[in-house]
Amino acid sequence: MFFSKNRILFFLILSVIFVLSLTMTAAAENDQQKAKSSEEITIAYVPRSLDNPIFLDAFEHAQEKAIDLGINIEWVAPFAYNAEAQINIIESLIARNVDGMVVSVNNTPEYIEVINKAVEKGIAVATFDADAPDSKRLFHIGIDNYEAGKVTAEGLLEVLESKNIDYNSKNKQLKTMIMTGVRGALNLDRRINGFLDKVENTNIGVQDIVENQDSVNLSVELLEQYLQKNPDIDIIFFVGGWPFYVPAEALPNFQRWAKNGGVAVGIDIFYDALLLQERGLLHYLVGQDMATMGSKGLSTLYNYIKYGIKPDEYIETGLQIANEKNLQRLLQTHRPWRVK
After folding, report:
1. Is the pTM of this model over 0.70?
2. Which of 43, 205, 248, 320 lies 20 to 30 Å from 139, alpha-carbon distance?
3. Could you tell me the residue range of the domain that residue 60 belongs to?
4. Considering only CA atoms, which of 279, 278, 263 is closest in space to residue 162?
5. Same domain assignment for residues 242 and 95
6. Half-sphere exposure of 168 (CA within 13 A, CB side)
Protein backbone atom coordinates (compact mmCIF):
# COMPACT_ATOMS: atom_id res chain seq x y z
CA MET A 1 0.00 0.00 0.00
CA PHE A 2 2.79 2.37 0.96
CA PHE A 3 4.70 1.45 -2.18
CA SER A 4 1.59 1.98 -4.33
CA LYS A 5 0.99 5.46 -2.89
CA ASN A 6 4.62 6.42 -3.45
CA ARG A 7 4.45 5.16 -7.01
CA ILE A 8 1.36 7.28 -7.71
CA LEU A 9 3.06 10.32 -6.15
CA PHE A 10 6.17 9.61 -8.20
CA PHE A 11 4.22 9.53 -11.46
CA LEU A 12 2.35 12.73 -10.52
CA ILE A 13 5.65 14.52 -9.95
CA LEU A 14 6.99 13.24 -13.29
CA SER A 15 3.84 14.44 -15.03
CA VAL A 16 4.18 17.91 -13.52
CA ILE A 17 7.83 18.08 -14.53
CA PHE A 18 6.93 16.96 -18.07
CA VAL A 19 4.20 19.60 -18.42
CA LEU A 20 6.47 22.33 -17.06
CA SER A 21 9.20 21.21 -19.44
CA LEU A 22 6.85 21.46 -22.43
CA THR A 23 5.65 24.90 -21.32
CA MET A 24 9.20 26.20 -20.85
CA THR A 25 10.29 24.76 -24.21
CA ALA A 26 7.35 26.39 -26.01
CA ALA A 27 8.06 29.70 -24.27
CA ALA A 28 11.74 29.49 -25.17
CA GLU A 29 10.91 28.78 -28.81
CA ASN A 30 8.48 31.70 -28.83
CA ASP A 31 11.10 34.02 -27.30
CA GLN A 32 13.61 32.77 -29.84
CA GLN A 33 11.27 33.62 -32.68
CA LYS A 34 10.59 37.07 -31.24
CA ALA A 35 14.26 37.79 -30.56
CA LYS A 36 15.25 37.55 -34.21
CA SER A 37 18.97 38.06 -34.60
CA SER A 38 20.04 41.38 -36.09
CA GLU A 39 21.84 39.59 -38.92
CA GLU A 40 18.54 38.16 -40.12
CA ILE A 41 16.69 41.50 -40.22
CA THR A 42 16.24 43.03 -43.67
CA ILE A 43 14.87 46.53 -44.16
CA ALA A 44 14.31 47.96 -47.63
CA TYR A 45 14.40 51.65 -48.49
CA VAL A 46 12.22 52.51 -51.49
CA PRO A 47 12.78 56.10 -52.70
CA ARG A 48 10.68 57.50 -55.52
CA SER A 49 13.42 56.96 -58.10
CA LEU A 50 17.12 56.26 -58.52
CA ASP A 51 17.76 59.14 -60.94
CA ASN A 52 17.10 61.84 -58.34
CA PRO A 53 20.33 62.41 -56.38
CA ILE A 54 18.48 64.14 -53.51
CA PHE A 55 17.99 60.69 -51.98
CA LEU A 56 21.73 59.90 -51.93
CA ASP A 57 22.26 61.43 -48.49
CA ALA A 58 19.50 59.23 -47.09
CA PHE A 59 21.06 56.20 -48.79
CA GLU A 60 24.57 56.86 -47.47
CA HIS A 61 23.49 57.46 -43.88
CA ALA A 62 21.06 54.52 -43.89
CA GLN A 63 23.94 52.31 -45.08
CA GLU A 64 26.16 53.54 -42.25
CA LYS A 65 23.43 52.94 -39.68
CA ALA A 66 22.76 49.45 -41.04
CA ILE A 67 26.44 48.58 -40.55
CA ASP A 68 26.28 49.89 -36.96
CA LEU A 69 23.16 47.80 -36.24
CA GLY A 70 24.43 44.72 -38.07
CA ILE A 71 21.36 44.40 -40.30
CA ASN A 72 20.72 43.99 -44.00
CA ILE A 73 19.56 47.02 -45.99
CA GLU A 74 18.29 47.15 -49.56
CA TRP A 75 17.90 50.28 -51.69
CA VAL A 76 15.43 49.63 -54.50
CA ALA A 77 13.38 51.90 -56.77
CA PRO A 78 12.57 52.49 -60.43
CA PHE A 79 15.33 54.37 -62.24
CA ALA A 80 12.88 57.15 -63.18
CA TYR A 81 9.77 57.77 -61.12
CA ASN A 82 6.86 55.57 -62.17
CA ALA A 83 4.04 54.82 -59.73
CA GLU A 84 3.22 51.41 -61.20
CA ALA A 85 6.86 50.33 -61.22
CA GLN A 86 7.39 51.50 -57.63
CA ILE A 87 4.28 49.64 -56.46
CA ASN A 88 5.50 46.50 -58.23
CA ILE A 89 8.79 46.77 -56.31
CA ILE A 90 6.89 47.05 -53.02
CA GLU A 91 4.81 44.01 -54.05
CA SER A 92 8.01 42.04 -54.67
CA LEU A 93 9.32 42.97 -51.22
CA ILE A 94 6.04 41.75 -49.69
CA ALA A 95 6.42 38.45 -51.57
CA ARG A 96 9.94 38.07 -50.17
CA ASN A 97 8.63 38.86 -46.68
CA VAL A 98 11.25 41.45 -45.75
CA ASP A 99 11.06 42.64 -42.15
CA GLY A 100 10.48 46.31 -42.87
CA MET A 101 10.25 49.03 -45.50
CA VAL A 102 10.84 52.78 -45.48
CA VAL A 103 9.13 54.20 -48.56
CA SER A 104 8.61 57.58 -50.27
CA VAL A 105 5.17 57.46 -51.86
CA ASN A 106 2.01 59.36 -52.76
CA ASN A 107 -1.13 59.33 -50.62
CA THR A 108 -3.19 57.71 -53.38
CA PRO A 109 -5.44 54.60 -53.26
CA GLU A 110 -2.91 52.39 -55.06
CA TYR A 111 -0.11 53.20 -52.62
CA ILE A 112 -2.40 52.99 -49.60
CA GLU A 113 -3.56 49.54 -50.71
CA VAL A 114 -0.06 48.10 -51.16
CA ILE A 115 1.20 49.57 -47.86
CA ASN A 116 -1.79 48.11 -46.01
CA LYS A 117 -1.16 44.76 -47.67
CA ALA A 118 2.42 44.79 -46.38
CA VAL A 119 1.32 45.68 -42.85
CA GLU A 120 -1.33 42.94 -42.84
CA LYS A 121 1.43 40.47 -43.82
CA GLY A 122 3.36 41.49 -40.70
CA ILE A 123 5.85 43.81 -42.43
CA ALA A 124 6.61 47.07 -40.61
CA VAL A 125 6.25 50.03 -42.99
CA ALA A 126 7.31 53.65 -42.49
CA THR A 127 7.40 56.57 -44.90
CA PHE A 128 10.08 59.19 -45.48
CA ASP A 129 10.15 62.35 -47.57
CA ALA A 130 6.62 61.79 -48.96
CA ASP A 131 3.89 60.39 -46.71
CA ALA A 132 0.74 58.28 -47.06
CA PRO A 133 -1.05 59.17 -43.81
CA ASP A 134 -4.26 57.42 -44.87
CA SER A 135 -2.45 54.07 -44.88
CA LYS A 136 -1.53 51.82 -41.95
CA ARG A 137 2.12 52.87 -42.04
CA LEU A 138 3.82 52.98 -38.64
CA PHE A 139 5.37 56.46 -38.79
CA HIS A 140 6.57 59.19 -41.13
CA ILE A 141 9.94 60.93 -40.97
CA GLY A 142 10.54 64.15 -42.85
CA ILE A 143 10.17 67.92 -42.89
CA ASP A 144 7.05 69.95 -42.22
CA ASN A 145 6.31 70.51 -45.90
CA TYR A 146 3.76 73.26 -45.35
CA GLU A 147 6.28 75.15 -43.24
CA ALA A 148 8.96 74.62 -45.91
CA GLY A 149 6.74 76.26 -48.52
CA LYS A 150 5.92 79.11 -46.17
CA VAL A 151 9.59 79.71 -45.28
CA THR A 152 10.50 79.68 -48.99
CA ALA A 153 7.87 82.37 -49.62
CA GLU A 154 9.24 84.44 -46.72
CA GLY A 155 12.68 84.18 -48.29
CA LEU A 156 11.25 85.26 -51.63
CA LEU A 157 9.77 88.40 -50.06
CA GLU A 158 13.15 89.20 -48.51
CA VAL A 159 14.84 88.86 -51.91
CA LEU A 160 12.24 91.06 -53.58
CA GLU A 161 12.74 93.74 -50.91
CA SER A 162 16.52 93.61 -51.39
CA LYS A 163 15.98 94.15 -55.13
CA ASN A 164 13.49 96.99 -54.52
CA ILE A 165 10.73 95.01 -56.23
CA ASP A 166 7.33 96.01 -54.89
CA TYR A 167 5.28 92.93 -54.07
CA ASN A 168 2.32 94.96 -52.77
CA SER A 169 1.72 97.12 -55.84
CA LYS A 170 -1.83 97.00 -57.19
CA ASN A 171 -0.67 98.28 -60.55
CA LYS A 172 1.43 95.31 -61.55
CA GLN A 173 1.23 91.58 -60.92
CA LEU A 174 4.43 89.60 -60.37
CA LYS A 175 3.87 86.66 -62.71
CA THR A 176 4.97 83.41 -61.13
CA MET A 177 5.59 79.87 -62.36
CA ILE A 178 5.64 76.93 -59.95
CA MET A 179 7.51 73.78 -60.93
CA THR A 180 6.52 70.62 -59.07
CA GLY A 181 6.84 66.88 -59.56
CA VAL A 182 3.31 65.52 -59.76
CA ARG A 183 0.09 66.90 -58.34
CA GLY A 184 -1.32 64.60 -55.69
CA ALA A 185 2.06 64.06 -54.03
CA LEU A 186 1.13 65.15 -50.51
CA ASN A 187 4.55 66.55 -49.59
CA LEU A 188 4.78 68.67 -52.75
CA ASP A 189 1.19 69.90 -52.56
CA ARG A 190 1.68 71.00 -48.95
CA ARG A 191 4.78 72.98 -49.94
CA ILE A 192 2.74 74.74 -52.61
CA ASN A 193 -0.05 75.44 -50.11
CA GLY A 194 2.37 76.95 -47.60
CA PHE A 195 3.91 79.13 -50.29
CA LEU A 196 0.56 80.35 -51.64
CA ASP A 197 -0.83 81.11 -48.18
CA LYS A 198 2.16 83.30 -47.39
CA VAL A 199 1.96 85.34 -50.60
CA GLU A 200 -1.85 85.51 -50.63
CA ASN A 201 -2.04 89.23 -49.84
CA THR A 202 0.66 90.28 -52.29
CA ASN A 203 0.70 90.92 -56.03
CA ILE A 204 2.44 87.60 -56.63
CA GLY A 205 0.16 85.68 -58.98
CA VAL A 206 0.64 82.13 -60.22
CA GLN A 207 0.47 81.89 -64.01
CA ASP A 208 1.36 78.22 -64.44
CA ILE A 209 2.14 75.06 -62.47
CA VAL A 210 4.51 72.84 -64.45
CA GLU A 211 4.73 69.13 -63.56
CA ASN A 212 7.99 67.35 -64.36
CA GLN A 213 6.86 63.86 -63.32
CA ASP A 214 9.63 63.75 -60.70
CA SER A 215 12.20 63.50 -63.50
CA VAL A 216 15.48 65.40 -63.36
CA ASN A 217 16.00 65.28 -67.13
CA LEU A 218 12.42 66.29 -67.92
CA SER A 219 12.59 69.16 -65.41
CA VAL A 220 15.57 70.67 -67.24
CA GLU A 221 13.85 70.27 -70.59
CA LEU A 222 10.57 71.77 -69.37
CA LEU A 223 12.30 74.69 -67.62
CA GLU A 224 14.23 75.67 -70.75
CA GLN A 225 11.15 75.31 -72.96
CA TYR A 226 8.99 77.34 -70.58
CA LEU A 227 11.43 80.25 -70.38
CA GLN A 228 11.85 80.29 -74.13
CA LYS A 229 8.09 80.77 -74.48
CA ASN A 230 7.61 82.91 -71.35
CA PRO A 231 10.72 85.07 -70.88
CA ASP A 232 8.63 87.74 -69.14
CA ILE A 233 7.81 85.57 -66.09
CA ASP A 234 8.98 87.35 -62.93
CA ILE A 235 9.34 84.57 -60.35
CA ILE A 236 9.89 80.81 -60.31
CA PHE A 237 9.21 78.66 -57.25
CA PHE A 238 10.85 75.24 -57.50
CA VAL A 239 8.95 72.91 -55.16
CA GLY A 240 11.92 70.53 -55.33
CA GLY A 241 15.45 70.68 -56.67
CA TRP A 242 15.00 68.61 -59.85
CA PRO A 243 16.73 70.96 -62.33
CA PHE A 244 19.50 72.00 -59.93
CA TYR A 245 21.76 69.02 -60.64
CA VAL A 246 23.12 70.29 -63.94
CA PRO A 247 25.74 73.01 -64.47
CA ALA A 248 24.61 76.51 -65.35
CA GLU A 249 25.87 76.01 -68.92
CA ALA A 250 23.14 73.38 -69.42
CA LEU A 251 20.49 76.03 -68.63
CA PRO A 252 21.08 78.87 -71.15
CA ASN A 253 17.50 80.19 -71.07
CA PHE A 254 17.43 80.05 -67.28
CA GLN A 255 20.77 81.90 -67.15
CA ARG A 256 19.49 84.60 -69.49
CA TRP A 257 16.25 84.95 -67.54
CA ALA A 258 18.06 85.32 -64.20
CA LYS A 259 20.50 87.84 -65.69
CA ASN A 260 17.53 89.90 -66.87
CA GLY A 261 16.12 90.15 -63.36
CA GLY A 262 14.17 86.92 -62.84
CA VAL A 263 13.95 85.71 -59.23
CA ALA A 264 14.08 81.98 -58.43
CA VAL A 265 13.62 80.31 -55.06
CA GLY A 266 13.24 76.66 -54.19
CA ILE A 267 13.38 73.72 -51.86
CA ASP A 268 16.40 71.37 -51.56
CA ILE A 269 19.95 72.30 -50.65
CA PHE A 270 22.92 70.41 -52.03
CA TYR A 271 26.29 71.29 -53.55
CA ASP A 272 25.20 71.72 -57.18
CA ALA A 273 22.24 73.88 -56.15
CA LEU A 274 24.55 76.07 -54.08
CA LEU A 275 26.80 76.51 -57.12
CA LEU A 276 23.80 77.76 -59.10
CA GLN A 277 22.99 80.09 -56.21
CA GLU A 278 26.58 81.38 -56.24
CA ARG A 279 26.20 82.07 -59.98
CA GLY A 280 23.06 84.13 -59.26
CA LEU A 281 20.57 81.74 -60.86
CA LEU A 282 18.92 80.88 -57.54
CA HIS A 283 18.28 83.43 -54.80
CA TYR A 284 16.97 81.59 -51.74
CA LEU A 285 16.88 77.88 -50.87
CA VAL A 286 15.26 75.82 -48.12
CA GLY A 287 16.79 72.42 -47.43
CA GLN A 288 15.62 69.18 -45.91
CA ASP A 289 17.69 66.79 -43.80
CA MET A 290 17.83 63.63 -45.92
CA ALA A 291 20.72 62.28 -43.85
CA THR A 292 18.52 62.04 -40.75
CA MET A 293 15.68 60.56 -42.78
CA GLY A 294 18.11 57.79 -43.69
CA SER A 295 19.81 57.08 -40.36
CA LYS A 296 17.00 57.82 -37.91
CA GLY A 297 14.34 56.35 -40.15
CA LEU A 298 16.25 53.07 -40.27
CA SER A 299 17.10 52.92 -36.55
CA THR A 300 13.53 53.79 -35.54
CA LEU A 301 12.05 51.01 -37.66
CA TYR A 302 14.74 48.60 -36.43
CA ASN A 303 13.90 49.34 -32.78
CA TYR A 304 10.26 48.58 -33.50
CA ILE A 305 11.03 45.31 -35.30
CA LYS A 306 13.66 44.13 -32.82
CA TYR A 307 12.36 45.42 -29.49
CA GLY A 308 8.76 46.45 -30.12
CA ILE A 309 9.47 50.12 -29.32
CA LYS A 310 6.59 52.07 -30.88
CA PRO A 311 7.71 55.46 -32.24
CA ASP A 312 5.89 58.76 -32.53
CA GLU A 313 3.72 58.87 -35.63
CA TYR A 314 5.55 61.93 -36.99
CA ILE A 315 9.29 62.53 -36.70
CA GLU A 316 10.21 66.02 -37.94
CA THR A 317 13.72 66.57 -39.27
CA GLY A 318 13.83 70.37 -39.52
CA LEU A 319 14.79 72.89 -42.22
CA GLN A 320 17.97 74.58 -43.41
CA ILE A 321 18.21 77.96 -45.13
CA ALA A 322 20.65 79.09 -47.83
CA ASN A 323 20.87 82.83 -48.52
CA GLU A 324 23.51 85.45 -49.25
CA LYS A 325 24.67 85.52 -45.62
CA ASN A 326 25.61 81.85 -45.27
CA LEU A 327 26.16 80.73 -48.87
CA GLN A 328 29.96 80.55 -48.71
CA ARG A 329 29.88 78.60 -45.44
CA LEU A 330 27.40 76.11 -46.90
CA LEU A 331 29.60 75.64 -49.97
CA GLN A 332 32.33 74.50 -47.57
CA THR A 333 30.11 72.09 -45.61
CA HIS A 334 28.23 70.60 -48.59
CA ARG A 335 30.38 68.57 -50.92
CA PRO A 336 29.61 66.83 -54.24
CA TRP A 337 27.91 63.46 -53.82
CA ARG A 338 29.93 60.32 -54.24
CA VAL A 339 27.73 57.77 -55.96
CA LYS A 340 28.50 54.32 -54.54
Report:
1. yes
2. 320
3. 38-143+290-309
4. 263
5. no
6. 4
